Amino acid sequence: MMLALSVSLAACSQQLSKTFDTTPDPELDRPGEFPNINVAGGQPPGKLMTADELTSTTAGLKSKASANDPRTADAARKASDASNAALEKTAATHAKKTLSEIQDRCGEPGAADATKCPQ
Questions:
Q1: Which of 38, 14, 43 is closest to 28 using CA atoms?
Q2: If pLDDT is split at 50, 70 and 90, which confidence band does 15 have?
Q3: Gap between the Cα atoms of 78 and 39, Å rounded
Q4: pLDDT tens column, 60-77
Q5: For the segment 16-65, what is each residue's pLDDT rounded down to a tens digit?
Q6: 112 and 102 Cβ atoms separated by less than 8 Å
Q7: What share of the chain is helix, strand, coil (3-state, %, to 5)?
Q8: Of residues 89, 92, 90, 116, the one with CA closest to residue 102
Q9: Around 94, how many Cα atoms within 13 Å sit in the side-chain half-sphere?
Q10: CB of 105 within 8 A of CB of 116?
């Protein structure tokens, strides 16, 4: 019994030393990785956009956005409204309908949920 206890404690102490290992993680010190929170003030890798590139790209995106067909947005809005109305109707009636169906089967053997049956 003492041998088993000694072996258990030895195994446990190894596990605890691994759990409380405070040596730095080498993955956090790899250079060139972004973002590395352990290195302050570094320039992120890659090429940043110049002010002119940013302006032209923003203008291009705005022109594409204005070129969208408003009829597409209206059709999507109408489809969304119809879908929302159907979901609201289902939400309003589903509980009563399902409870009624369960209670209708209360007398049958193997009723789906006997806790919903009148006692």
A1: 38
A2: low
A3: 52
A4: 998 888 777 888 888 888
A5: 555 677 777 776 666 665 566 676 666 666 678 899 999 999 999 988 88
A6: yes
A7: 65, 0, 35
A8: 116
A9: 6
A10: no
